[in-house]
């Protein structure tokens, strides 16, 4: 099948890199009933590849690292242990990783169909705008609120600071941890903004180091089996024998569902390359192959590292330690002193790589939001000057990430913010999947270089619905002081608030002023096409 990046589907009516410095068009967006809406930077043109003013500099390798470093984060050192602790046995734990990989593949199928059909930077922003055009600007507004308010990289910055201080033997005080976390975020944003090419090379190197560390762990586990060294790390192959594989399994559905959600979250980020499509060489072909390769890599690494854990660490110790499984693994293989340095260093490096690729992609997405005209100083924030990088996008990304790390007075509030982010992401994912089904019926004419299997789309929708409803069921033996579904309620409040904000500035204010909300398409000096919104 020919790559759509080589053969345009329609004749382009606008160019990202145009040199025309004048306004090109004014369009009313409050006359939907009259059917006269012809938005500038036409949504219909999203089917066309768009080249960033930065250029298409991301090779297949860089795009692959952008995805795999986002997916395989520091959780690989902790999540397997927490799942075993919950479900009780190696057999059910490994089964959940297989099921979780299948569910992740279903979600990826949705993203791939959209990404290959609409090869533009922005990811879910582009998909929602294309699928939900009425009411005009509602989908864009809601996604902008979600991305700007909740799109941050604070968690891995904090993980880095704690593990780096532990590796150095320094007490992790609150001030020191937050300072180091902010320092990492600042370093990443400045590097990607001022030295964009160096930033890509650094994150590529860190990505391969992370993969190398995990492969080393896997080989170490199998080394114990093959060579049987005379140490405390003697192989525990009996734990994977069928008669012991399912011992002490907890078949409680609530426990299984919670563990499955953790596995599902471990595959988050397979669509990360879709956020930077304007900078990827041969975007459609690369997106398709990179995402599928990353899915296969993640599945293989997760399964093999789980097996390595079971070959080295006694199942009883795993049940008792939970997220400390990797610490026990290194300690049994290399001794307590060496393990106490290797593990935190590995986790810290993994966190840095994750922060770099997430910030890289999120900055591009937020630059697309600025190009839509929703933010103050959109012309400044949309420009790629002076370093030929989306510095404005990094500024938008830096501010909420900085505030989330500095302001929360306790870990519980910080965890609440992260839960709100995760819950809101499921609402976005559900809307994207339903939008795909909607377009299948309404727009069968669209060229689809990749077509998702409809049962896979249905599974993605069902999974999102389950994740959205689950928080409202009271957990067994819950004794918390706050409402157990508080993060879900806050997410819905943000959504409703977004609808109210959209109605205020697109409907109420124009009627009160007796004006109309206009879109003006113009081109910045660096060639970036943006939309300016005004009342007239």
Automatic annotation (TrEMBL):
Keyword Cell membrane: no
Pfam family, any one: AA_permease_2
InterPro entries xrefs: AA/rel_permease1, AminoAcid_Transporter
Gene Ontology MF, one: L-amino acid transmembrane transporter activity
Keyword Membrane among UniProt keywords: yes
Extent of Polar residues compositional bias: 1-21
One GO term describing the cellular component: membrane
Membrane association type: Multi-pass membrane protein
Localization per Swiss-Prot or TrEMBL: Membrane
Primary location: membrane
Transmembrane segments: 63-84, 96-116, 137-163, 175-195, 207-226, 251-270, 290-312, 341-363, 395-417, 423-441, 453-473, 485-504
Keywords: Membrane, Transmembrane, Transmembrane helix
Region (Disordered): 1-46
PANTHER family membership: AMINO ACID TRANSPORTER, TRANSPORTER, PUTATIVE (EUROFUNG)-RELATED
UniProt name for this protein: Low-affinity methionine permease
Organism: Fusarium oxysporum f. sp. conglutinans race 2 54008
């Amino acid at each position: 099948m020919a790559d759509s990046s080589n053969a345009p589907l329609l004749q382009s009516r606008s160019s990202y890199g145009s040199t025309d410095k004048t306004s090109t068009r004014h369009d009313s967006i409050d006359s939907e009933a009259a059917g006269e809406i012809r938005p500038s930077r036409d949504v219909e043109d999203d089917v066309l590849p768009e080249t960033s003013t930065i250029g298409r500099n991301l090779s297949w390798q860089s795009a692959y690292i952008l995805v795999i470093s986002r997916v395989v984060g520091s959780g690989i050192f902790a999540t397997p242990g927490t799942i075993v602790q919950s479900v009780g046995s190696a057999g059910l734990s490994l089964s959940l990783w297989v099921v979780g990989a299948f569910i992740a593949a279903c979600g990826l199928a949705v993203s791939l169909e959209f990404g290959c059909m609409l090869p533009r930077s922005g990811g879910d922003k582009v998909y929602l705008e294309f699928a939900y055009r009425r009411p005009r600007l509602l989908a864009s507004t809601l996604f902008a609120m979600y991305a700007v308010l909740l799109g941050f990289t604070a968690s891995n910055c904090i993980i880095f600071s704690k593990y780096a201080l532990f590796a150095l033997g320094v007490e992790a005080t609150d001030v020191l941890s937050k300072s180091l976390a902010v320092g990492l975020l600042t370093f990443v944003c400045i590097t990607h903004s001022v030295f964009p090419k160096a930033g890509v090379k650094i994150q590529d190197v860190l990505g391969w180091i992370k993969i190398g560390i995990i492969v080393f762990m896997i080989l170490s586990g199998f080394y114990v089996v093959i060579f049987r060294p005379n140490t405390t790390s003697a192989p525990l192959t009996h734990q994977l024998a069928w008669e012991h594989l399912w011992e002490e399994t907890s078949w409680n559905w609530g426990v299984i569902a919670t563990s499955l959600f953790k596995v599902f979250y471990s595959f988050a980020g397979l669509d990360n390359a879709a956020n930077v499509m304007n900078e990827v060489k041969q975007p459609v072909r690369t997106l398709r192959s990179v995402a599928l390769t990353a899915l296969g890599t993640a599945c293989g690494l997760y399964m093999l590292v789980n097996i390595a854990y079971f070959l080295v660490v006694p199942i009883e110790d795993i049940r008792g330690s939970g997220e400390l499984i990797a610490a026990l693994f290194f300690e049994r293989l290399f001794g307590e002193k060496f393990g106490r340095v290797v593990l935190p260093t590995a986790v810290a490096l993994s966190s840095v790589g994750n922060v770099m690729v997430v910030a890289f992609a999120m900055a591009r997405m937020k630059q697309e939001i600025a190009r839509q005209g929703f933010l103050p100083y959109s012309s400044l924030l949309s420009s790629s000057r002076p370093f030929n990088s989306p510095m404005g996008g990094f500024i938008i990304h830096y501010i909420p990430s900085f505030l989330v790390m500095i302001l929360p007075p306790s870990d519980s509030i910080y965890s609440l913010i992260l839960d709100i982010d995760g819950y809101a992401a499921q609402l976005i994912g559900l809307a994207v999947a339903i939008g795909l089904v909607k377009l299948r019926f309404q727009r069968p004419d669209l060229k689809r270089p990749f077509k998702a299997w409809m049962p896979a789309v249905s599974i993605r929708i069902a999974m999102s619905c389950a994740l959205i409803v689950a928080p409202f069921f009271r957990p067994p033996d819950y004794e918390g002081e706050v409402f157990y579904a508080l993060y879900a309620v806050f997410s819905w409040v943000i959504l409703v608030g977004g609808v109210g904000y959209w109605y205020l500035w697109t409907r109420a204010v124009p009627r009160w002023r007796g004006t109309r909300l206009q879109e003006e398409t113009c081109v910045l000096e660096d060639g970036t096409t943006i939309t300016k919104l005004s009342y007239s």
